Amino acid sequence: MNNLIVLGDTHFKVEEPFFSAGKSFMKWFSKQNFNDDNNYLICLGDLYHESKPNPKVIKAVENWFLNELKFKQMFILSGNHGYNRAKDSYAIEPLINFGNIKLLKEPQIFNIENVKILTLPYFYPYTLEDIPPMEKYYSDLPEELRTKVDFIFGHMEDETSHFTDYYCDLSYLKGEKIFGHLHIPSGHFLGSAFISRYDEKGKSGNLEIIDIKTKNTKLIPIPIFLDYYDVNYPDSIPKVSAEFPIWNIHDISDKESVLEQYPDIYIHEMFKKQTRKKLKRKDISTSKKSIMEYFKEYIQLNKYIDDRLESRLIELIKK
Predict the structure, then answer these.
(1) Are 293 and 317 in contact (CB under 8 A)?
(2) Each residue's pLDDT tens digit, 179-196
(3) C-alpha closest to that of 64 among 74, 54, 79
(4) Which of 81, 74, 136 is nearest to 107 (CA)?
(5) What's the predicted TM-score (pTM) here?
(6) Which of 239, 218, 219, 217 shows the shortest CA–CA distance to 229?
(7) Which of these, 86, 135, 189, 63, lies nearest to 312 by C-alpha position?
(8) pLDDT tens sequence across 266-309
């Protein structure tokens, strides 16, 4: 029985413990029964966290694809993290040299055996010539891309889940949707393969397995390799389920005592006793400020926010 395995965002990156969690995920994934040369793999975008990945990360990912994954054919959608504008290239492009890997950078319809697929990868306005911006183009695709398909794979926000009016309206398309991009599982969004930032705390991503013959689907939860937890200083660190825990330390008096008490753990934030004051970030003044000033402070503290989303939010605030 041949299957199509669909994998959401992985965001492989060099910072610990995210790098080690990524390696554990690779090991788990490679050992699954579906990793064989009768099956196909589709990665829904953002394989790497950065457009210029650290060489250590590149080596680990390339080894995974070349020596551990056994799929007949593998497809990787471009995501919003993958394009390097300065070099006009995608971080994942070297993988196509392996022969059985195809990079999908623009919308297209094709078949995997008897399964008809439409792919809608993320693209920036300057990457595809003579095509409108992604939100406009995907909301009104040309007739040749409106054909009824079995499955639609994409990497963007759509009309069912979005944070601003900066999204694609795909309600007119016919086919079962399975999407990446949004990190928290919801509806047809698979979620990240493993946690890569604090707002994903406690959330497990999923794999989707499609039976090529029957076109039936099965959702497979992915084990939680990394997660965020809380502990009150000076309590002992409790046992938790994630292999790579990251901790918020509460009720502390000073940073040095915490580092002495917990020398071998990953710490996300430390909070002073009673005030819950964050020691890791600069205090935000309580003086009266404009919404724009508050927003810019927020952006400084949350570097993971997409540049295009930031620009769009600034436009909305100015209105």
Answers:
(1) no
(2) 999 999 999 999 999 999
(3) 74
(4) 136
(5) 0.84
(6) 239
(7) 135
(8) 999 999 986 545 555 444 444 456 777 777 666 665 544 555 66
> In sequence order, what E strands does the chain have?
3-7, 40-43, 73-77, 83-84, 89-90, 101-104, 108-112, 115-120, 151-155, 176-180, 206-211, 217-221, 226-232, 244-252, 266-272
Q: pLDDT digits over 82-132, tens only?
A: 888 888 888 999 998 888 999 999 999 999 999 999 999 999 887 887 889
Question: CA-CA distance, 50 to 46, in Å (whole number)?
Answer: 8
Q: Which amino acid is at 72?
A: K
Contact between 282 and 298 under an 8 Å Cβ cutoff? The reply is no
Cβ neighbours of 293 (radius 10 Å): 13
The contacts of residue 156 (CB under 8 Å, 6+ apart) are 120, 122, 134, 135, 138, 167, 168, 179, 181
Q: Where are the domains of the chain?
A: 3-221, 226-272, 282-319
Give the bridge partners for 102, in sequence order: 75
Give the pLDDT confidence score for residue 236 in this predicted structure. 96
Q: Provide the token pair at 83.
A: 């394009």
pLDDT recorded at residue 53: 94
d(CA 280, CA 114): 54
- Residue 301 contacts by C-beta under 8 Å, 6 or more apart in sequence? 281
CB distance 174 to 148 below 8 Å: yes
In the block, which residue shows the tokens 């008490």?
Answer: 261
CATH ID of 3-221, from 3.60.21.10, 3.60.15.10, 3.30.930.10, 3.40.50.2300: 3.60.21.10
Integer angstrom CA distances of residue 150 from 177, 224, 310: 9, 30, 34
Structure tokens at 232: 């009150």
